[in-house]
Every structure is written in structure tokens, then in C-alpha cells.
Amino acid sequence: MKSHSKLLPYLRPYRLQFAGVVLFAVGATGMSLLAPWLIRELIVVIQSGDGSAAGAIAWISLGLLGAYLLRGLFEFLSYWVAHVMAWWLCHDLRMALYEHLQRLSLSFYESRQTGEIQSRVMNDTENTEPLVADIVPEVLVNALMFFGVAAVLFWLNPTLALLTLIPVPVLVFVILFLGKRVYLAFKAEREGFGDLSASVQDNLSGMREIQIFTRERRERERLGRISSRYAADQVRARRLDGAFQPTVLFLSGVGTVIVTYFGGRAGLAGEVPLADLVAFILYLTMFYQPLLALAGLSEYTQLAIASAARIAEVLETESEVEDPKDGLSPKRLSGEVRFQDVHFEYVPGTPVLKGVSFVARPGQTVALVGPTGAGKSTIAGLVPRFYDPKRGRVLLDNMDAREIKLSSVRANISMVLQETFLFNGSVMENLRFGNEAASDEEVYEAARVANADGFIRELPQGYETQVGEGGVKLSGGQKQRISIARAVLKDAPILILDEATSSVDTETEAEIQAALAELMKGRTSVVIAHRLSTVKNADEIVVVDEGRIVEKGRHEALIRAPGLYRKLYERQFGGAVA
User: Fold this and answer.
1) Residue 487 and which of 185, 266, 296, 371 are 20 to 30 A apart at CA?
2) Contact 361, 398 (CB under 8 A)
């Protein structure tokens, strides 16, 4: 429960609304307690045989009518204010969760499925709504009702009131014992839903691969196992919850039986006035009602608490990349990138980079080459601080990147990756992602630099054409050129190209290379490439193998040396270099 305190600050803006809910709940409880007392007075008036009894009965009836009207009004106001407050709280939690997710480093996402994270943002935040709108007001009203009725019962007849309390210790034990098991069952159910949601999203995103590799049956069976576990968790949670409520109902019934027996005998003996006995029994039904109501809320309560715990878990997760509070905020860097004895590991004890050192001076192009898994993309990811070195430093203009505000670091870096991601919107919207303040002419010019203007204008709606989810309506080369145009619009002094042309054909590659050449002018470029023909003109080629730099130099020098670069070149072009 300690983690739930993480959510309390989000309730503070709604203090007045919450106070209103409390006030209306007190009013509704007061009116509920008044009704049986008026009925007691009615019996007293009837038994008195007074000549003015008819008028008193009329006033009592009007009093009852007023009590019921006010109770209904107070209940409506409590319901309405609580739900308005709850839905806006859900909005606040959802946005806080999303904002926090944006601050987390990439390592958080690499260890979790997208669907599972999405389940927390959407489903878990929504599941907290009943906690504020229904559960908290209900608990408050029922607590007031329980203690209010208890006070009246002891005032009417202390002996019968004590008999009424006989089942209460057992009720409390059942609520605490079974309640914890129900909570754990609903928490497991929420986790199962997250796993199922993540698997469904993965399969829908990878439907092309499932079909081409004829894995439909295998994936259906795998998804069926996950869905079966989720269904079993649901059944278990409902079984426990189903046993919980009837148990509470039975125990409350035992209390009513005890009072009926002893109260009835006391009434026959004339020890308890009839009016008090009737009022006592009416109040007795209200005495156990709060416990029954709380038992009825158990499913929603446990579901909401489990969801709140999952939200708190994300909010408590700290980013491995910290944004310095009083960090430097340079507006535009000259573009120097320097690695000094950089060591890095994703998994403790498994080094990925081992003492990497090199420098890319302003305006230079440095190419990173080497076998797959050598650590090239990791090096590129350290520049914009997607990760931080475990040892050593990454310097930007001779400033440790960790001492610069993240927003300033990333504002000075553009990236064009092998896998281009486009948002589900128009071409224009995706281009402006690089600079939302860019004018139409600036967007067109960026597209021309990226050799993208021609094909964009041939699309059905030109720049307003919808690209579909992930840019599915465009080819790989078209998406890549839009990515380049986006980087042109950003106009950052440092450019990172990670396999920007490896997934396109030769003709498209030539077009993209021409666009990249324009983009790289005047910028410090760190280029990762498997196709060595694309890095011949780099100012320096850094050869990486198993996390270490094994060679450095220009193409002409490296091709003459009997090192790894020459081997890679010969392997690609088939034959020994003369």
C-alpha cells in the first residue's frame, strides 16, 4: 500500500470537490438515520390515542417525505461531484503517466512490451475511476452509517445492541482474510491482462511475418495459452469474490436472528416498548448494510487498488538517464563529438563497449563500421544520451553530455535510422515533426533537398496524403526520404545516420545518398554503415569489433593495411584488394 501514496498528490487539486462529496454524504446519511426515528414516533403517537394524533401523523408523513427528498438530492450531488472529480483525476493520472514515460530511458522500453505499457496508460488509469467516484464515497457513507446506527442502537437498548455486535468480530476477520486474497487475485488478473494485451498487439503488428512464415497455428496456440491463463485468473478472482459476499451476508443474517429472538422475548415480557423494538429492528437492517455494501464493492475495490499499484510502479521507476537540474543549456553547439575511454553494458557484467575513444570535429564525417553486434549502434545511442556510459565520458563541444540539459543535447542532434517511424497523419504533419514552426515553403525546400518533393506531389493528396499507421502506405525509400527531410527541417549541427540506406534497392539508395550528401554539408556526421562503398569519403573511418576500436583512418590507408576493414571490404566486393 505504500506505493499508493505516490498517487495522493494528484488528489490535492480536487480538495474542494472532495469536501463537497463528504458534506453531501453526511447529509444523505443524516436523512437515512432520521427516517426510522420518525417511524418510531409514528408508533408512539398511534399508541398514545391522543386526539391530535391525526395532525401529528400528517407532520410525521411530511417529515418522512422531506427526509427522502433530501436524501435523494444529497445522494445525487454526491454521485455527480464524485464522478466529475474522478474522471478528471483519471485524465491527470493518464497524462502524468505518459509524461513520466517520456522521461524514462530506452532501457525501460527494451525490457517491456508496448502493449503492457499501453495497458497501464489506458486500462489501469481508467480502473482507478471507481476508486474515487464510487468506492471512497461509499466507504465514507457506510462508515458514517455504521457508527451513526450503532450510536442509536445503544441509545435505544444497550443490551440488544451488545447482542448485535456478536457477529462483528467474525465479519471483520472474514473481510481482512478473504479481502487480501481477493486483492492478490485481482492483481494477478490485471497483470494477465497486460500480458494478453501486449501479445495481441505484437501479433497484430507482425501479422505479415506470421502469414509469410505460416505461423498462424503456432501463434494462435501461444495466444490461446496466454488467454487461458488470463481466463483462469479471472475465474479465480471471481470465485474468491463470490465466496466473500455470501459469507458476509450470512454472518449479518445471524446477527438479525439473535436480535429477533431475544428482542421478541423482551417485547413479550414488556421489557422493551413496541416502538423501540420496531425502531431497533429497522435500524438493525441499516447496521449491517454498510458491511454488505463494502462486501459488494470488493471486486471494484481490489481491481482499482491493483490498477493503482501498477500505475504507482511506473511512476516510481526512475530513468537511468538523469536530466541535470542545473544543467548547461547551450542553444547551438559547434558540433564536436568526443568519446573518452567509454565503457558501457546493458546487462551488468556483460560489457558492450570497452574503452572507446575517438573524436568527430565540427563539420567532419566519422564512419563507424564493423561486424554485426560490434557496438556501433550503441555508440550512436550514447551521443543523444539514450544511454549513459558506465565509465568514461561523451563530450559535446568539450562539455560532458551528462552536464547538459537533455533538451539541449537532443535539440542539437538529428537522427536518420534504418527503421523509419512515421506517425499516422499526413506527410506534412510528419515533416513538421522536425520543426513545427516551419513554413510551407521551408517544408517544400527540405523535401527538395531530400529528393522527396517529386514523389510527394504525385501522391493522391500531395503533402496532405495520409501515410497510415507507421507509414504503411509508403515504400521504404519514400519513408526514408521523408525522414531525411525531417532532419533537414530540424537543422541540428550533429547528424547520426544509422544504416540509413541498408534496406533499400540500389537505385533508391543512390537517391537517398544524394539527399544525405546535401544533409551532411556543414554538419558533424556520425555514420553507421554496412555497405562500405557509402563511407569511402568519410574524414575518418572507425572500425569497431567486439566493443573495441581496432582501426582508425581514411579509406585509402585502411584498405592497404592488413586489418579488419580490408577483410570486410574484400568480403563485400568479392576478391582481394590489389
Assistant:
1) 371
2) no
Distances (CA, A) of 245 to 135, 264, 303: 16, 28, 16
Read off the pLDDT of residues 164-178 as tens digits, 9 standing for 90 and up. Answer: 778 878 877 777 777
Question: Which residues in 68-152 belong to E strands, given as ranges?
Answer: none
Q: DSSP letter at 313?
A: H
Burial (CB count <10 Å: 0-12, 13-18, 19+), residue 513: middle
Give CA separation, 291 vs 237, 446, 526, in Å: 20, 68, 67
Q: For the domain 2-315, what is the CATH code? A: 1.20.1560.10
Q: Decide if 3 contacts 313 (C-beta within 8 A).
A: yes
Are 192 and 309 in contact by the 8 Å Cβ rule? The answer is no
What is the model's pLDDT at position 385? 92
- Whole-number pLDDT of residue 296: 60
What ranges do the domains of the chain cover? 2-315, 327-412+524-578
Q: Which residues contact 272 (CB under 8 A, 6 or more apart)?
A: 157, 160, 263, 266, 280
What are the angstrom distances between the C-alpha of 33 and each of 40, 69, 83, 437, 485?
12, 14, 25, 63, 71
d(CA 366, CA 382): 15
| Among candidate residues 110, 126, 107, 101, the one with its CA nearest the CA of residue 190 | 126
- Whole-model pTM over 0.85: no
Cα–Cα dist 311/306, whole Å: 9
Residue whose entry in the numeric block shows the C-alpha cell 481491481: 303
At residue 446, does pLDDT exceed 50?
yes
CB count within 10 Å of CB 31 equals 19
Give the pairing of strands 365-369 and 524-528.
Answer: parallel
What confidence category does residue 1 fall into, taking pLDDT thresholds of 50, 70 and 90? very low
Please list the residues that pair with 413 across neighbouring strands: 494
Pull the grid cell for residue 41: 414516533
Cα separation, 32 vs 29, in Å, equals 5
CA 519, 525, 528 angle in degrees (round to 5)? 105
DSSP string, 482-530: HHHHHHHHHT-SEEEEESTTTTS-HHHHHHHHHHHHHHHTTSEEEEE-S
pLDDT at 3 over 70: no
Bridge partners (DSSP) of residue 328 are: 404
Greater pLDDT, 420 or 447: 447
Beta partners for residue 356, in sequence order: 342
Which residues are registered as beta bridge partners of 391?
Answer: 343
> Which CATH code for domain 327-412+524-578?
3.40.50.300
- Check residue 358 and report its DSSP letter: E
Q: Half-sphere exposure of 86 toward its Cβ, with a 13 Å CA cutoff?
A: 21
Reference 331, options 468, 491, 171, 561; nearest CA is 491
Residue 200 identity:
V
- Amino acid found at 504: V
Query: Which helix (H) or strand (E) is 369 found in, with range?
Result: strand 365-369
Alpha carbon separation from 327 to 189, 323, 383, 403 (Å, rounded): 43, 8, 17, 5
